[in-house]
Amino acid sequence: MEPASPARLYASLLGALLVILGIVGFFYDASFTSLDDLQTGLGGIEVNAWFNLFYALTGAVGVLVAGVASRPYSLAVGLLYTLLGIFGPGTEWLHLVIGILGLLAAAGAPGEKKRGSKRTKYVQKEPRDSEARAQPVRNRA
To answer: How many angstroms separate the CA atoms of 73 and 43, rounded?
Structure first.
């Protein structure tokens, strides 16, 4: 069995962690106020209901597509969270870590063999009926 790709690990593991983060975050703050109105909880992570919903939804999508579209998910979430870490409110360091890990997972590990880069060609051989068959040697005595 082939080991899972970095993008698939990212989509499944980070997706599950984001779902948990989103659900647990509702216990700290469940108010849908402005995006700047954040409560500190979960070990220093700033949350509100909007962020909790965002984490839970992006995580659920990751868990759902981990087997079929993990690379596009890793790229999209990586870009989204990186931009959120640079320009958005909330816990910038967390968003940057999630985003950079997503971009690295989408790019693949250094030296990783890309799937489909070396394809095996299957050539169908002609039946052997057209080939001359060896005839038994008869004794000429």
So the answer is: 27
Domain of residue 25 covers 6-110
Q: How confident is the model at residue 110 (pLDDT cuts 50, 70, 90)?
A: very low
pLDDT at 18: 96
Distance CA 91, CA 74 (A): 20
Enumerate residues 6+ apart whose C-beta is below 8 A from 113: none
Considering the domain boundaries, does residue 134 fall inside one?
A: no
Give CA torsion, residues 29, 34, 36, 38, to 10 deg.
-10
Q: Give how many domains the chain has, as a whole number.
A: 1
Number of H helices, E strands in the chain: 5, 2
Q: How far apart are CA 40 and CA 55, in angstroms?
A: 16
pTM, two decimal places:
0.73
- Tell me the chain's radius of gyration from C-alpha atoms: 27
State the amino acid at position 36 in one-letter form.
D
